[in-house]
Write a structure and sequence with these properties.
The protein has 387 residues and is of the alpha/beta class. It is built from 14 helices and 15 strands. It has two domains: 3-181 and 361-385, 3-Layer(aba) Sandwich (Rossmann fold); 189-357, 3-Layer(aba) Sandwich (Rossmann fold). It has a seven-stranded parallel beta sheet, with helices on both faces. GO terms for molecular function: glycosyltransferase activity.
Length: 387
């Protein structure tokens, strides 16, 4: 089977109404598949003014805003109109990318028609509850996820370390790696612009510690803030730049009154802002890959990250950055201090990270997903022929 023979119905809980790393990857995948001649139809909640235009044909599914996080929407049902559209499209493979009710109904729809189902796992959903004092329900969430993932023909995970977590959790045993790529035209050391940095009231001679990501608590904002507090107590010269927007921005600004918040940056502006940092601090444990980590590495920055699934697949400890036990504030502060006071070490580890980033080509990475679709279709057809 050729990639051009594929007809993929893709279900997403958030394809383009709020920008995040997962839906950026999905849109890139769809763009690649369309260029290869495949047919793709996307089903997702929509809003009147999305964060960015969708790649491909997007069909709206019924949804409602999450009460405490109204920027996000919950898909409600595979409605009659959506089912009609799905039947007319006639997919030969279903791809689900979030464990919501609509994705579960789509997976059942596929099983009723003997179609294969691929699930891409983009985040460690079960860990989110730790940030809302609900960690006691984590085992229940794992069981709820397992019930869906075990019914899929295969999973794709963004890193080998996360795939191993999924195996240990008994989510599925057919797991391919769908890594992430980086746009080297946007993210490279040559994007560094000291004039722009000065325009943000950041001086040339004091190291800039950067945060990049959506401003929500599950990104480790509390750990980031506590470690920066330690640097201030130790009187370590440093500056902080925060790139991103989100509902926790007010809280984060109150915790980091001396930081420079530059808001959302996209495209070439994002590459410039990242390259103007001197190191990236990414304390999140919810990442399954760490797009921001790879983008910083491509800009020649050392990365200080939590020793978690995504970062462990990218950062080589003491070579291109440091991996620290999640939540270990003093250890984070120690390595941040070391980088702030040692420009040669920053340069050495940043160069190693940039070299590592050269391995990540988007087209080759996305072709692995197309190959997985084709394999699942072949396997399903072979099973159907067995008497």
């Amino acid at each position: 089977m050729q990639t051009s023979d594929l007809r993929i119905a893709l279900f997403s809980g958030n394809y383009n109404y709020v920008r995040d790393g997962a839906n950026q990857a999905l849109n890139r995948l769809v763009g690649y598949l369309l260029r290869q001649g495949a047919q793709v139809r996307i089903y997702s909640p929509t809003v009147a003014v999305p964060a960015f235009p969708p790649t491909g044909d997007l069909i709206s599914v019924p949804s409602m805003a999450i009460p405490n996080r109204p920027e996000y929407r919950i898909p409600l049902s595979l409605s009659r109109n959506v089912r009609r559209d799905l039947e007319a499209f006639g997919p030969n493979v279903i791809h689900i990318s979030s464990p919501d009710r609509v994705s579960r109904q789509a997976a059942q729809w596929a099983r009723n028609r003997n179609l294969p189902v691929l699930c891409s796992v983009h985040t460690r959903f079960e860990t989110y509850f730790r940030y809302y004092n609900l960690s006691f329900i984590e085992p229940l969430v794992e069981a709820w996820l397992r019930k869906l993932y075990r019914k899929c023909d295969a999973l794709v995970a963004p890193s080998e370390s996360f795939a191993q977590v999924l195996r240990e959790q008994r989510m599925n045993y057919d797991i391919d790696i769908w890594s992430r790529g980086v746009d080297r035209d946007i993210f490279n050391p040559q994007r560094r612009d000291m004039e722009w940095r000065r325009s943000q009231n950041l001086t040339d001679d004091i190291p800039v510690i950067g945060f990049l990501g959506r401003l929500v608590m599950e990104k480790g904002l509390d750990v980031f803030s506590d470690a920066i507090d330690q640097l201030r107590r130790r009187q370590v010269l440093h500056q902080v730049m925060v790139i991103g927007e989100g509902p926790a921005r007010g809280w984060f600004e109150s915790r980091l009154p001396h930081a420079r918040f530059v808001g959302f940056q996209g495209g070439a502006d994002l590459g410039r802002a990242v390259a103007c940092m001197d190191l990236l601090f990414n304390p999140s444990v919810t990442e399954t890959f760490g797009n921001v980590t790879l983008e910083a590495m491509a800009c020649g920055l050392p990365v200080v990250a939590a020793k978690a699934t995504g970062s462990q697949s990218l950062v080589e400890d003491k070579v291109s950055g440091r991996l620290i036990t999640p939540g270990a504030i003093n250890q984070f502060a120690d390595v941040l201090q070391n980088y702030c006071t040692n420009a040669e070490l920053r340069h050495q580890h940043g160069n190693a990270g940039e070299f590592r980033s050269l391995d990540y080509s988007w087209d080759a990475i996305n072709q692995t997903v197309a190959d997985t679709y084709a394999r699942l279709i072949r396997q399903r057809a072979a099973r159907s022929m067995v008497p």
